[in-house]
Every structure is written in structure tokens, then in C-alpha cells.
Design brief:
elongated; 215 residues; mainly alpha; 0% strand
């Protein structure tokens, strides 16, 4: 009897986890590892350990680290698309722009690993062959533009103005993320959120004739 038990592998007693779930775990673990060690230091071994899985399982789910990072990049971008959609107050264009900016900044503030990993992944994606990184980033930007277009449907705005506003939002949010990532001072970051929003208000007032409003 004991020989029969000894012949079994310990894996036989562990419930099988679907590959899709394992990939999701590896993706989330990779975000944390990239935030701590950067792209170069995000080894598959560290990612597997963070996911509390063995290295063989990671290599079973992903043929290469590049394929894993591509999924991580898409995951991060999809999270930001969700934040943008959730920040849509279904109000006018100026209010929608403010909500998007504040929603993204608050997400950065509450998810510092995402702020750090995003900055790393943008540089990584730009170095990859082909346009995969650019395509994913453009998908996130199109979500911003689509939300802004929806907010301006009652009073149509020139497409050029929508493009410019989307660029302003991305620039302000990314600048906030870089400062937050660099200094990690939550109190200062909270104050900088107000400054950043006031910069957007000034742009809106000039381009749309929208007076700043209190948050």
C-alpha cells in the first residue's frame, strides 16, 4: 500500500488550476515584480515565486518572458481603460475631462505598483519589434477620445480639440505618475493632484471657455 502511495506524485493531490487562471496570477505577480525590480530584474523565477507557483508552470503557460510581458502590458492598459470608463460622469465635456484626470491620478495614488510598472512597461513596449506596444497604448487613448466625444455629443467639438484634450489628459496624468513614482510622498502627491487639475482647468477655460469649478 505504501509503495503505491509513494509512486504517486504530489501534484496528483493538488486541484488542477485552469491555465487561464494561472496566467492571470502570473500577470498580476509580474506587475508587482516589475514595480520592484524593473523590467530587467523581473526574472521568470521571481515572477513565479511572487505568484506562489513553480517555474515550470510559468513556462508551461508562456513560451517566453516577452509573451508574458505583452499580456502584462495589455492587462495594465485594460485596467486604465476601466478607470476611464468608470470616471465618466455622463456630464459635459469639461466635467468629464476633470473626472477622467482625477480618476486616473487617484488610481495611481492608490495603486503605486501600477504607477511604477506602467512607466517601465511603456519603455519596454517601445523597444519591442512591431507596433504591439503602440497599438495597446492607442487603444487606451481611443477610450479617452471616445469618452470625450460622448460627453460633447450635445454640443459637438472639433475632432482636433478632442485629440488635443486627450493628449493633455495623458500628459498631465503621466507627469503626475512620474513624480509620485519618483518621490513616493503621498501628502505631496495629494496636493499635486489639485495643481494638476488646475492646469487642466486653465486649458479648458482657454479652449472651451469653461470656468474652473470646485472638485
Amino acid at each position: 500500500m505504501s509503495n503505491d502511495v509513494d509512486a504517486l506524485h504530489w501534484e496528483d493531490f493538488v486541484p488542477r488550476i485552469p491555465v487561464a487562471q494561472r496566467r492571470s496570477e502570473f500577470i498580476k505577480a509580474a506587475v508587482d515584480v516589475i514595480a520592484i525590480y524593473g523590467i530587467e530584474g523581473a526574472t521568470t523565477r521571481r515572477i513565479a515565486e511572487q505568484a506562489q507557483a513553480n517555474l515550470a508552470m510559468l513556462h508551461y503557460c508562456y513560451d517566453s518572458k516577452e509573451d508574458l510581458f505583452a499580456d502584462v502590458y495589455e492587462y495594465v492598459a485594460s485596467r486604465f481603460r476601466d478607470v476611464i470608463k468608470d470616471s465618466d460622469p455622463h456630464g459635459n465635456l469639461a466635467d468629464t475631462a476633470r473626472r477622467i484626470l482625477r480618476g486616473v491620478m487617484e488610481f495611481y495614488l492608490e495603486s503605486p505598483n501600477f504607477a511604477a510598472a506602467t512607466l517601465e512597461l511603456i519603455s519596454w513596449a517601445r523597444r519591442q519589434r512591431g507596433n504591439r506596444g503602440i497599438t495597446v497604448y492607442e487603444q487606451a487613448m481611443e477610450t479617452v477620445r471616445a469618452t470625450l466625444r460622448g460627453a460633447s455629443s450635445d454640443h459637438p467639438i472639433e475632432p482636433e480639440t478632442i485629440d488635443q484634450l486627450a493628449y493633455v489628459l495623458a500628459t498631465l496624468a503621466d507627469g503626475f505618475a512620474l513624480n509620485w513614482f519618483t518621490y513616493g510622498d503621498r501628502s505631496a502627491a495629494t496636493e499635486q493632484m489639485e495643481i494638476t487639475t488646475s492646469v487642466l482647468d486653465s486649458w479648458l477655460a482657454v479652449r472651451l471657455g469653461s470656468a474652473p469649478v470646485a472638485p
